[in-house]
Design brief:
The protein is an alpha/beta fold. The protein is built from 13 helices and 13 strands. It has a 7-stranded parallel sheet with strand order 3-2-1-4-5-6-7, with helices on both faces. Strands 10-9-8-11-12-13 form a 6-stranded parallel sheet, with helices on both faces. α6 (about 175-185) crosses α9 (about 255-260) and α7 (about 200-215) crosses α12. The two termini are about 15 Å apart.
Length: about 350
């Protein structure tokens, strides 16, 4: 059977990219239709155009972590956001609405409940966000992407399923040999892949530049570093002055290749990053973004740490010496110790099956 599915959410990559993974799985059946609903200020307004996926906008603001004026403005416009969502659901007539968290997920979830459209909530983080916590109690199904984490306590167990990481297909199938050649890296060296999300992370960038001097005495080490646009030249200069072999790029499109060459990953711990690390089986040093809503990045990082896949450094403890010591320790363990147990990447497939079951039962 064919389905028309609305995927609501975004604002950040951690909420958007799981939705894209679901959409790609849905669209493997050419008879299915997918529509994203987001906001003009969210990352979805840029990414979905590049991905060739349809997007409609509603007007809704952010509540968590905002000042009084911004919160009041959002609360004032919230009824209009719900009206827009009701009109959109009535117009599109989807078979299922999937909420992945973020700004637009709330009003669209409410519209689905009011108009009796099956609502499925997907929680990519190991600690449930505000919108998902509220809607999950009334939704038809709640999908958790990290089993055994704190997110379970917020939802009725009888309608909650833990499916594991939700990431794009193929992220764990990069061509290692070709990626070494494409990035200009030496396949005989221990490779540290540093990133801070698509926009980079200034704190991590500067810590690595300062750590470079401590890492210089390790001849078997090289770095692949995604900085974001702002810091790229400063980071290149830092590695050059430290005489540390490094490839520094503002953005990396071939993430599967980057993971394939990595023996160790240094990064933030957003939902997508942590899920990709779990699926790719990569050891990591995780430095959670300290201002993330509900401190969810630290919860995400601890999920991998509990599996023995990561060392967590909170940002207030991040120093060049500390970071260099942890990298030295990983290099000393060697590439044989770099691999970790992989988690299966089947969540998107299972979510599509769950959607189909709910449509048939509705």
């Amino acid at each position: 059977m064919h389905m028309k599915v609305v995927i609501a959410g975004g604002g950040t990559g951690g909420h958007l990219y799981p939705g894209i993974a679901i959409a790609r799985e849905l669209l493997r059946d050419s008879g299915n239709e997918v529509l994203f609903v987001g906001t003009e200020q969210g990352i979805e307004s840029r990414v979905l155009l590049r991905e060739g996926l349809p997007l409609r906008f509603i007007a809704v603001g952010k509540l968590k972590g905002m000042g009084f004026v911004s919160i009041m403005r959002t609360l004032f416009t919230l009824p209009w956001s719900v009206v827009q969502s009701l009109r959109l659901v009535h117009e599109v007539r989807p078979d299922v609405v999937i909420g992945v968290g973020g700004y637009s997920s709330g009003p669209m979830g409410v519209a689905a409940l009011v108009l009796r459209v099956p609502l499925i909530i997907v929680e990519p983080n190991s600690y449930a966000g505000l919108v998902n916590r509220k809607l999950g109690r009334m939704a038809d199904k709640v999908i958790l992407c990290f089993p055994g984490t704190g997110a379970q306590k917020f939802f009725p167990p009888e309608k909650t399923a833990s499916l594991g990481p939700l990431v794009r297909q193929g992220i764990d199938q990069g061509d290692r040999e070709r990626a070494f050649a494409d990035f200009g890296l030496d396949p005989r060296r221990f490779t540290v892949f540093v990133m801070g999300g698509s926009g980079g992370a200034h704190a991590i960038n500067m810590a690595m530049v300062k750590a470079a001097g401590f890492l210089k005495p390790v001849p078997a080490l090289q770095v692949l570093h995604q900085t974001g646009k702002k810091d790229v030249e400063e980071v290149r200069k830092g590695y050059r002055e430290a005489a540390l072999n490094a490839v520094v790029l503002p953005y990396i499109h071939d993430m599967a290749g980057a993971y394939a060459v990595a023996d160790l990953v240094v990064s933030r711990s957003g939902a997508t990053t942590v899920a990709e690390l779990a699926v790719c089986g990569k050891r990591a040093i995780l430095i959670p973004f300290p201002f993330a809503a509900d401190n969810h990045q630290e919860y995400n990082a601890k999920t991998l740490a509990e599996r023995g896949m990561a060392k967590v450094i909170v940002q207030k403890d991040l120093t060049a010496e500390f970071l260099a010591d942890e990298i030295h320790r990983a290099v000393a363990q060697g590439t044989a110790a770099a691999a970790a147990d992989r988690m299966e990447n089947r969540a998107a497939e299972e979510i599509v099956r769950i959607c189909r079951d709910h449509v048939q039962a509705h």
